[in-house]
């Protein structure tokens, strides 16, 4: 089950990164992994590649085995000097998650 979840996460992440580039958005996200810490917490690690002057708000979600969302967290990615950064965030969950990922990102206005 863990291997299937890791494959699904990679597929969804690759799809999101590809879609964001096709949609003309000047950023991409790439999943690195997730760690289910228990029924109340999942950690999600991901890379963000963007122009250094952009700030983003990304929605990071945790999903149950039936793909129902059991937790989410908005993460602010600040403008910075780096174009590629890694983030690990904790997502509080209402029940045991089986995966975690970046669902979407949006540009923050200046």
Compact description:
The chain is of the alpha+beta class and 110 residues long. It has one helix and six strands. Strand 3 and strand 4 form a beta hairpin.
* Alpha carbon gyration radius: 14 Å
Principal-axis shape equals elongated
Portion of residues in helices? 10-25%
Structural class call reads alpha+beta
Average of pLDDT: 85
Spatially, the strands of the biggest sheet line up as 1-2-5
Question: What is the ordering of alpha helices and beta strands?
Answer: HEEEEEE
- List low-pLDDT spans: 14-22
- Main sheet? 3 strands, antiparallel
Distance between the termini: 43 Å
Percent of residues in beta strands: over 45%
Tally the beta strands.
6
Number of helices: 1
Give keywords.
3-stranded antiparallel β-sheet, 6 strands, alpha+beta, 1 helix, 110 residues, 19% helix, 52% strand
Describe this structure in words.
This protein is an alpha+beta fold and 110 residues long. It is built from one helix and six strands. It has one helix at 2-22; strands at residues 27-38, 41-50, 56-63, 69-77, 84-92, 99-107. The strands form two sheets. Strands 1-2-5 form a three-stranded antiparallel β-sheet. A three-stranded antiparallel β-sheet has the order 4-3-6. The chain is elongated and about 35 Å long.
Helix and strand arrangement:
Blueprint: H1 2-22, E1 27-38, E2 41-50, E3 56-63, E4 69-77, E5 84-92, E6 99-107
Antiparallel strand pairs: 1-2, 2-5, 3-4, 3-6
